[in-house]
Every structure is written in C-alpha cells, then in structure tokens.
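Input:
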Amino acid sequence: MSHFLDHIIVILVRPQMGENIGAAARAMANFGLRNLRLVAPRDGWPNPRADSLSSGAFDHMEPVTLYDTLSDALHDTHLSYATTARPRDMVKDVLTPREATDQSYAHVAAYPQQKVAFVFGAERTGLENDEIAQCHKIVTAPTSDDFSSLNLGQGVLMLAYELFQAHHIHDADKPPAPITHETASQASFDNFFHRLEAALEDGGFFREDSLRPRVIRNLRSFFMRTHPTEQELKTLHGVLRSLVSLRGGKNDS
Amino acid sequence: MSHFLDHIIVILVRPQMGENIGAAARAMANFGLRNLRLVAPRDGWPNPRADSLSSGAFDHMEPVTLYDTLSDALHDTHLSYATTARPRDMVKDVLTPREATDQSYAHVAAYPQQKVAFVFGAERTGLENDEIAQCHKIVTAPTSDDFSSLNLGQGVLMLAYELFQAHHIHDADKPPAPITHETASQASFDNFFHRLEAALEDGGFFREDSLRPRVIRNLRSFFMRTHPTEQELKTLHGVLRSLVSLRGGKNDS
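Output:
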C-alpha cells in the first residue's frame, strides 16, 4: 500500500488553546502523521500560539484544513474512531489505542483508497454524544484508575505513537488480517440516514421532542455499527422506499 | 508478583525546567508509576513550577527523592535503561519502548525483589556518554526520520504508557474486557426480521422471486451484524411501524 500514515486523519473538534493544537501537531509530525483537520477552533485559524508550540511541525505536514462541523470533516473518511475517556451509554466497540491502530492498519491495507479518522474533543468537555455517535468506534486509553488527566496533546501523542509502531512493525514483516467488507463513505451513510430520519419524522416516530436527539443518536449508533457497504446502503434505500409505499394500494397496519 | 509498576523507577538526570518535571510526573501518575528520582535538578527541589504543571500528580506518588549523581540514583536497581534518541558509538542493546517494557516485565516476574530504572537526560543535551555507560541497555523510540523532537514529558509519557500496557496485558489474567452489550435472543431477532420481511413483501420489494432468497440473506446478514439489544429491537419495531404508517394516503416513488 501507499504510506499507511498518509491515510490517517486527525480531527480536533472545537479545540480551545492554540498551544494544544501546536502540541498535537508536534506529536503528529514526530510520528509521521501529516493530515490535521480542525472543526471550529475557538480562536480561529491560523493561530500564532499553535505555531510557536509546534516546534516547526507544520512544515512537515499537509496544510491544516478547517471545517464547520464534524460531519463535514468526516465526509471522505470510511472508518472513524472517537477518542473519549468515558464510554457513554452508547452501544459501540471500545478499543485500546493499540487495537484501534492495528485495525486501522488492516483496513488501509485492504482498502488503499480509504481514509481513517481519529477524532478528539475539546480540552475540558471532550466530544459530545452526538459527535461520538458519528464515529464508528470508540478508543479509550487504559490509564491509572485514580489519576487520569491526559491532555489533548498527550492523547494525540499516544495515538500517533501507536500508529507509527503499527506502521513500523507491520511494514517490516507479516501482512495484517484482512477486513471483511468494503465500507461506504460517511457521506453515503449520512445520505441514507437523513432520508430515514425524514421518513420517521413524516411517520410520527418522534413522539416527544425532548427525547428526539437521544433517539436519533441511538438509531444512528445502531446503523453505524453495521459499517455498511455501498451496496448495502443501496439495499437500505430500497428497503426504505418499499416500506413507505404500498404496492397496489392495500393498507397495512 | 507484587504490583509490577511499583518496581519501576524513573530517573531524570539534571532536568532544567520545573515544568518538565511536572509533566513527567503527570505522565507517570496517569499510568500508575509512583517512583521518581531526580539527579541534580538545576533549580533545586521542591520546585513550584513542577507542582503547577503536575495537575496534582505528586499526591499519587511516593515522595520524590534527590541524588547528586546518576550512580547514586541507580544504587539499588538491578536493570537500567538509558533513554536516548541517538545511539552513540557504544556496544549496547538498543530496544524500542515496547521491547524494553516487555523485558522489564519479565525481569520483575523472575526477580520480584528487584527494581528497574528508566533514565532520562537533560532537556537539550540528553544523557552524557558516561551516564549511558552506567545503564545496561538503551531505549530509543522510533520516530519520524525528518522530524524528531520529543520533549522530556513526552518521552516519559510514551514509556509510562508502554509500561502500563505491559502491566495491563500481562497482569490482568483476563484480557481487558471487550464491551459486551447484552444482546437480544435469536427468537426476538427473528420476530423482528420476519415482520420486516412481510412489510417488504407488501411493499413490492422483492421484484424477482429467483433473487429473493439471496436478498433476504444479505439483509439478514446486515441486521445480524449489529447484534442488537432487546431495546434496539423495540426501537426497530417502532421504526418499522412508523414507516409503514406512511403508506396510508400518499404515494412514494
């Protein structure tokens, strides 16, 4: 495959301190990662504080790109990991950084055209549940039970370190385990999911407005978990179409 | 053996910035390391700058101890690793952090009375050749060839992270528990799936009888892959009900 690390995208969502963006970039460049995306950085971009903390890391990377929403930033990725210390009440695989990087490596080896994203939340608040729901899996670094205070730069560092090790170890010898199916892009998935959401709206599925965000989030998590192929999404579109339309005119309960 | 991580000693030789000592302590506490030794810290000890950068890490550790020379600091250790980015002209084993931590783990398992030291040099200058010579082996973290600028806190973090993983993987007889959500029974699943199938039938989803078994199989595979909970099946029943309710009047393409 082409260079594994070039398939990895780091996304920082609503980062607050330029210093932390700089530290994240430095950690990335130390371990050969080149693609950094920022979603709504508090102090805008470019940011001189980030530059000064980066030790020149940006010179070794692709230009940083800016997005308004996580959804936009994920549009061309096929596999995404939400990094969060606290797995919420959400049904998703939770992996260690090492497991996630091994899995990413296998994914990129099987699908050399695809990109894999690692998503980090804001410094204090982390990722919101809706943002976690937009990712396929969760990565949580095991830390000491009674003292767990990794900052943003440290979180990126550990992950970058593991990714580089995976690259280093695997490229050296054995081929990694293959992935079983070719997954659709996030944009294709979103397209289906928005159609489903609209149809449910029409069908009166959301009885209470207050519960709606959580119901959508759970539903999204459910469908994300399948990690569908383009073919499967096509089938789901057909399923949806056929469920809302009754052949011949007979009525269903 | 007693707690593996309690056998590990981190030694910082001639550290300059209190901030870096604080960051190192924070990284240690994050990963359950408790023993920090300082050799001739430039600004003496205690150091308020270290405290403020530590996020309270020192509260989770043994008291820091001070030494005049590396030789003194190593006196009661049995295995020591010099961390240095540049292996000098010296005949010693050079290990990755992962190899070194695995080796440490094996060592402590075999010799439960012994201590293992990881030695870090001053910020800019690193360890001197004489100091490297006092250690048994060298640890070098593989980093990107064209950008390698790990600072002291980051170096300690990576090592602490690896030590904790080694502890975690080996000590827990059980591997870190994969999150298992409580899945629904096959009967519940089949119940949902048959309802879906019937609704699709009514909607004219199966255009060609000959393809029908394969389409159903694929659809079933898709939904099986989620391995849903009972709660999720309930939601899916609701989704189905609400989608087919749209069939009443308007016609969808």
